[in-house]
Each structure stands twice: as structure tokens, then as C-alpha cells.
Design brief:
By secondary structure, the protein is mainly alpha-helical. The chain has helices spanning 2-23, 28-32, 42-61, 78-97, 101-105, 122-146, 156-161; strands at residues 107-111, 117-121. It has a two-stranded antiparallel ribbon.
């Protein structure tokens, strides 16, 4: 499981890099334009990805992370957002590379945004993070298609074939 999660963390970084190759082709107006995405725009969805990655990372590390809603803007600047999101991908890789089997099965206790107590084991938390990234990269891909921007192949299959 540790090796699988380490590989998924590398995929998470790779797919995010590929996505940004296409996002960089958007005009500033397209990048911020309201679309049918749940978080409003390509920028809003990328910002959400960063926020949630940081939130889950803080929970995993047992450090506080105060946020009131999942759409809270962390980074306004597009390039800074890209740098921060890729940096968070690197944090996931370092974490996954150092995991022990014992740590994978340990529960993480936290409070959700409704302040309810929750717990999730480390392995499931990491699988959720990487699946969540795939979900929103797919949404952004649909917006890119609507803008006429070419979308890279980001399926896991292409990652393992390279």
C-alpha cells in the first residue's frame, strides 16, 4: 500500500503539471470567467484544490488549519497558485515516501467544517486526496474544452506508460 500511494502521489503531481500546461493557454479572462464549475471558474477550482490539499495535509500532520468554507480564496495570483499547488503535491510525495504500514492504518481524528468530530485512517485519507484531485482536474478539463483549449492526456494509464 505504501508503494501504491507513493506512486499515486507522483501521478497527482504529474497530472497537475499536465493540467497547468493547458491552463497556461487560457486568457486571463477565460481563467477567471464564471463557468458551470462548482467553484465558479478555473481559478476558483484550482484554488479549491489547493485549499483542500492543504486542509487534509494539516489534518494528517495534526496541525490547525482554519477555514470557513471550501471556496475560500487562498491565492489570487495564477502563477503563485500554480507554484503552491505543485509544492503541495511535493509534500504529498514526501509524506507517502516515508509512510510505514503501521502509519497507514492509524486513524486521524479531526473536526469537519461543521465542527463535527470525525476520523479517517491515513490510507483512506490519502486515497481521498488523490481521487479528489482527479475529480477536479476532470472538471477543469471540461472547461478547457469549452474554451477551445487542447486538454492533455492525464489518465493514470498515460502516467504509467511514460
Amino acid at each position: 500500500m505504501q508503494q501504491h500511494l507513493a506512486k499515486l502521489s507522483r501521478y497527482h503531481r504529474w497530472a497537475t503539471e499536465k493540467l497547468f500546461e493547458s491552463v497556461s493557454l487560457l486568457t486571463e479572462e477565460q481563467y477567471r470567467q464564471p463557468t458551470d464549475l462548482f467553484f465558479g471558474s478555473v481559478h476558483g477550482t484550482l484554488n479549491h484544490l489547493l485549499l483542500v490539499d492543504q486542509l487534509w495535509y494539516a489534518r494528517l500532520e495534526g496541525v490547525p488549519y482554519t477555514v470557513n468554507n471550501l471556496g475560500h480564496e487562498i491565492e489570487q495570483d495564477a502563477k503563485a497558485l500554480e507554484t503552491a499547488l505543485l509544492g503541495q503535491c511535493d509534500n504529498w510525495f514526501k509524506t507517502c515516501a516515508a509512510l510505514t504500514e503501521r502509519r497507514l492504518t492509524q486513524d486521524i481524528a479531526f473536526r469537519n467544517l461543521s465542527d463535527e468530530p470525525c476520523k479517517l485512517n491515513t490510507g483512506d485519507l490519502l486515497i481521498h486526496v488523490f481521487n479528489h484531485g482527479t475529480h477536479h482536474r476532470g472538471q477543469i478539463s471540461a472547461a478547457l474544452v469549452a474554451f477551445g483549449v487542447p486538454v492533455p492526456e492525464m489518465d493514470y494509464y498515460y502516467f504509467v506508460r511514460r
